[in-house]
Amino acid sequence: MAGVQFADVRKSFGAFPVIKGVNIDIADGEFVILVGPSGCGKSTLLRMLAGLENISAGEIRIGGRVVNTLPPKDRDIAMVFQNYALYPHMTVQQNMGFSLMLNKAPKAEAEKRVKYAAGILGLDSLLDRYPRQLSGGQRQRVAMGRAIVRDPEVFLFDEPLSNLDAKLRVAMRAEIKELHQRLKTTTVYVTHDQIEAMTMADKIVVMHDGVVEQIGSPLELYDKPANLFVGGFIGSPAMNMIKGRLDPENSGRFITADGTALPVANAPDSAKGRDLVYGLRPEYILLDAGGLEGEVIVIEPTGYETHLTLKLGGSDLNCVFRERVNARPGERLNVAIDASHVHLFDAEGGQRLS
Ligand code: ATP
Q1: Whole-number Cα distances in Å, 9 to 53, 168, 187, 205
Q2: Which residues does the UniProt record annotate as the domain ABC transporter (predicted)?
Q3: Is the minimum distance from the CB of 19 to ligand 1 under 6 angstroms?
Q4: Would the CB of 41 count as within 6 Å of ligand 1?
Q5: Ligand 1 midpoint to CA 39 (Å)
Q6: Is the CB of 152 under 6 A from ligand 1?
C-alpha cells in the first residue's frame, strides 16, 4: 500500500488550463473521493494519476516516488471504469485473471487470486458465465474483481456506479465501502454525486473549475463549508442562500434584500457592513416553533420526512421536517430558525465568515 500526493499539479489542453495548481495529500489506506460538477477536472486528475494523461507542471507521487513520466503499467495501480470494459468473449474467470496471464503469473497463483477476489465479491457461482449473462451489478463486481486480483498499491475508480439504476447504486455504494474496509487499499474515487462522496469517503476533495475548493471529512464539509460553492454543492436538498446584510443596530438580525428579518447567533465583526449571503440548511428550519410565518408552495412527502418549499418574505426556502406534515399549498405555517446553525458568507468572495 502507499500514499498519494499531488503537488501543485497543473494541466492544460492547448492553451486551455483545466487543472490550475492542485495539492492533495492522500494517506496510505485512505478512501478519498474527488467530487465536483461536470467539467471541473476530476477525471483529468485521476487519469494523470493513472498515467493516461501527461502532466503540464507539478509532481504526482505514489508511495513517495515521483511518477510523472512513469508508464501506467509501472505505477502499481488498478482502475475501475464507468463502463466496466469487460471482454465479451471471456468468462468471468478469464476476465478476472486476464491481467495476471499477461503478466505471466504462475497458473496456480492466478487461480488462487481469482478465487479469493470472487469469494470477497460473491462471484463464486458465476465464474463460468459470460458478461452478457450477468446483471449490471454483477458486471460491476467483475470489474472490481479484475482490479482486486492485481493487488495494487492504489485503486482508482472513475464514476463506477453511474450506469447502474438508483437502487443498485445504493447497494454497490455499501459494497465498495465494505470492500475498502476489508482490503484497506488506498483508493481514489471520482464522482459528480455528492451523496456518493458523503456516504463513502474518509476524505472528500471538492473541485470546481480546475481548483480544489476544500478538502475534509464528509461532516466537516457539511458543517463547515469553506465557501458558498461547497455550501451549495454538499447537502441535499440544498442549503438555502439568501442575500442581505446585518442590521447595523443589532448584529443578531440579518435583513434580507426584501426587508425580512432573520435571526443570527454570534455574527463575527468581519460580517458587519458587508454584503452577505445567509446560508441555512433545510433541517434547521423548525416547524411549529413560532416566530416566522411562511406560505407552503410545494409539499413532498417521502414517508419518513417531509420536504417542503416555504415562501418566507421574498425567498423560497427548502425545508426538511423529520415528521409527516399535513399541509396544503397556500396554507401558512409557523416556523423558527435554529440560529446557532446559520452560516454567513461574504457575498463577493464567497468565503464563510461564520
Ligand atoms: P465529467 O464529470 O463531465 O467527466 P470532469 O470533472 O471529470 O467532468 P474532465 O473530464 O476532467 O472533467 O474535463 C475537464 C475539462 O477539460 C473540461 O473542460 C473538458 O472539456 C476538458 N478536456 C478533457 N479532456 C480533454 C482533451 N483530451 N482535450 C481537450 N480538452 C479536454
Answers
A1: 12, 35, 19, 15
A2: 4-234
A3: no
A4: yes
A5: 5
A6: no
Query: Three-class SS of residue 45?
Result: helix
Q: What is the pTM of this model?
A: 0.95
Predicted confidence band at 170 (pLDDT cuts at 50, 70, 90)? very high
Q: Are 34 and 205 in contact (CB under 8 A)?
A: yes
Q: Which domains does the chain have, with CATH numbers?
A: 4-232 (3.40.50.300), 239-346 (2.40.50.140)
User: Which tens digit of pLDDT belongs to each residue from 7-18?
Assistant: 999 999 999 999
The SS3 call for residue 306 is strand
Q: Exposed (0-12), middle (13-18) or buried (19+): which is 69, by Cβ within 10 Å? A: exposed
Q: Which atom of ligand 1 is nearest to the CA of 190?
A: 7
**How many whole angstroms from 132 Cα to the centroid of ligand 1?**
30
Residue 196's alpha-carbon distances to 28, 237, 265, 305, 327, in angstroms, are 21, 15, 32, 21, 32
